[in-house]
């Protein structure tokens, strides 16, 4: 009996310690992240040592690339869990604005270092580069501390991985975060490689995991076979690898019953790809829940939109300047005031305006509700009064019925509802049914070879997509789509290019020197029917616009634009490439405008 008891006890102890050992070595996502962060710190230190030792540019560049590749392994988590720090690790080499406090922060991180070491490496900048690397190392340690303290649950991991696929598509392969070195393709490969590793940790027995492994492996092979930034076929990469991978991640989440992360953003957490018909939510930028979209509100808003009594003299409605036949623009270089005087700015399209968190060219209003009342009460545009409009509508039987349907919980018509109804109509003007959309959803006959070439140029060599982000093609930054950007491109007064536009743009309301001549990056959806172009209507055709950017913006024209954010070097597009680029932009036209 004693022998049997001893053998049983020994077996139990062996099982217990074996189980503990298994658990001790069991892979954990947080542990993997902390290991990768340690590796990143080591790579940064090695880069510092090469700089300090006056190593050759070739050696420095090789180490810089290795360091960036290590960062790309954990970018999915850094961008998701600590975005404020991520901005100063791999954000654009441009000042970060805090407009509420009227101040700015100088940029730090990989893109700043990249400018120091490529294409020219000046050894005189050694101290500055080492200082930048110290900041990068400090930020990495800060991320390490954060990761050690937070809970990293499966739902957040899946959401972060899905966003990272979107990041690769919209920012990675476009060169957004490697604007000079153009190391985007090997970095995209690295970012993708980590996805199956993480899913294996979450659920090693998943039926979907093998599919994910296969797609990721083929995507890596494609990157290896096509490393050249300018010739890389992004259309193939997106449709054959990134979209299928995004769909598989979505399916993995459903199969494993991992809940979607709830968030109030334009891009729905449940979207399988960026190009799904209902991927975007028009409520992403509403100010509060009572402003949320409904069809009943849009119907009311449409009536208000065409009602000329909203203007002081009863001769102008919203539709007077936003003609629905030409994608809610007016076809004029700039509109005219009620007294017939030319205004300073071009009338922008209202289509897809709901997917921006700043309205007007100068971005002075943050939402469509404030935008609508700004126009109605502007003395040059409509010169109306919201108080007077509210008083009139409150006694109109037809309007009362429409308001009751739109706002059934409200006992009476309120002024804010007028703004919200008009804005709701504007929020309805997003079709996502262009030939481009059809192609991205699988209809390979909707776009021809020249247009496909144009899309590859748009997202690659021509660098259009580094400001007009896919798939909204405006300045709302993916993959969170939470912030809309401005640019300083040096727009001339007219197509002659002889004088810089005198319009100060955002600087009028926020007097920071970086904002002189800064304007919102508008959507290029329906751009074929919204001529003329730029904030002042300077260019009559898309061909003129492409030529302007090919030359390097205002600086390329020989104008003095000290704070230009657009790269000033020439794109060197051929005549055929320019033609293809214009052809692609024409595929962004919604069905109703064709």
From TrEMBL:
The species this protein was found in: Flavobacterium lindanitolerans
GO terms of molecular function: cytochrome-c peroxidase activity; electron transfer activity; heme binding; metal ion binding
Record lineage: Bacteria, Pseudomonadati, Bacteroidota, Flavobacteriia, Flavobacteriales
Protein origin, superkingdom: Bacteria
Predominant localisation class: other
Location in or out of the cell: Cell envelope
Protein name: Cytochrome c peroxidase
Annotated keywords: Coiled coil, Heme, Iron, Metal-binding, Oxidoreductase, Peroxidase, Signal
Regions that span the bilayer: none
One Gene Ontology cellular component: cell envelope
Span of domain Cytochrome c: 296-430, 449-589
Sections of the chain in a coiled coil: 30-57
């Amino acid at each position: 009996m004693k022998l049997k008891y001893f053998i049983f006890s020994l077996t139990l102890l062996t099982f217990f310690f074996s189980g503990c050992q298994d658990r001790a070595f069991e892979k954990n996502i947080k542990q993997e992240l902390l290991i990768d962060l340690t590796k990143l710190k080591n790579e940064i230190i090695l880069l510092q040592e090469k700089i300090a030792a006056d190593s050759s540019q070739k050696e420095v560049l090789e180490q810089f690339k290795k360091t960036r590749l290590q960062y790309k392994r954990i970018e999915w988590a850094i961008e998701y869990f600590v975005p404020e720090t991520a901005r100063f690790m791999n954000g654009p080499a441009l000042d970060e604005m805090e407009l509420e406090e009227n101040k700015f922060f100088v940029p730090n991180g990989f893109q700043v270092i990249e400018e120091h070491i490529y294409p020219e490496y000046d050894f005189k900048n050694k101290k500055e580069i080492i200082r930048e690397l110290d900041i990068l190392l400090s930020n990495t340690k800060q991320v390490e501390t954060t990761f050690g303290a937070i809970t990293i649950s499966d739902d957040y991991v899946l959401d972060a991985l899905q966003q990272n696929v979107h990041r690769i598509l919209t920012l990675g392969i476009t060169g957004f975060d490697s604007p000079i070195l153009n190391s985007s393709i090997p970095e995209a490969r690295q970012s993708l490689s980590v996805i199956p590793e993480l899913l294996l940790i979450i659920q090693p027995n998943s039926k979907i995991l093998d599919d994910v492994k296969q797609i990721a492996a083929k995507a890596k092979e494609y990157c290896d076979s096509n490393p050249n930034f300018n010739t890389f076929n992004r259309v193939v990469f997106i449709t054959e690898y990134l979209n299928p991978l995004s769909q598989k991640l979505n399916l993995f989440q459903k199969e494993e019953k991992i809940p979607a992360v709830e968030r109030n953003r334009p891009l729905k957490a449940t979207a399988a790809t960026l190009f799904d018909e209902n991927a975007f939510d028009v409520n992403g930028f509403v100010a509060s829940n009572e402003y949320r979209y409904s069809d009943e509100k849009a119907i009311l808003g449409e009536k208000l939109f065409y009602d000329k009594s909203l203007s002081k003299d009863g001769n102008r409605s919203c539709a007077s300047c936003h003609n629905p036949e030409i994608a809610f623009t007016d076809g004029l270089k700039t509109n005219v005031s009620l007294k017939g005087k030319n205004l300073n700015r071009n009338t922008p399209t209202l289509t897809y305006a709901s997917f921006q968190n700043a309205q007007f060219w100068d971005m002075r209003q943050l939402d469509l509700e404030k935008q609508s009342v700004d126009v109605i009460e502007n003395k040059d545009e409509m010169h109306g009064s919201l108080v007077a409009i509210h008083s009139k509508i409150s006694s109109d039987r037809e309007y009362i019925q429409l308001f009751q349907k739109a706002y059934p919980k409200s006992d009476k018509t309120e002024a804010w509802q007028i703004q919200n109804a008009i804005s709701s109509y504007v929020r309805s003007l997003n079709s996502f049914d262009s030939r481009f959309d059809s192609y991205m959803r699988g209809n390979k006959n909707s776009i021809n070879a020249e247009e496909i070439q144009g899309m590859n140029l748009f997202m690659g060599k021509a660098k259009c997509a580094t400001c007009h982000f896919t798939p909204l093609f405006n300045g709302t930054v993916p993959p969170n789509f939470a912030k809309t950007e401005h640019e300083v491109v040096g727009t001339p007064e007219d197509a002659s290019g002889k004088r810089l536009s005198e319009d100060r743009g955002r600087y009028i309301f926020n007097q920071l020197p970086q904002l002189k001549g800064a304007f919102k990056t508008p959507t290029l959806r329906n751009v074929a029917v919204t001529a003329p172009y730029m904030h002042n209507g300077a260019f009559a055709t898309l061909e003129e616009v492409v030529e302007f950017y090919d030359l390097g913006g205002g600086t390329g024209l020989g104008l003095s634009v000290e704070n230009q954010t657009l790269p000033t070097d020439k794109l060197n597009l051929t005549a055929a490439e320019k033609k293809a680029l214009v052809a692609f932009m024409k595929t962004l036209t919604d069905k109703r405008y064709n």
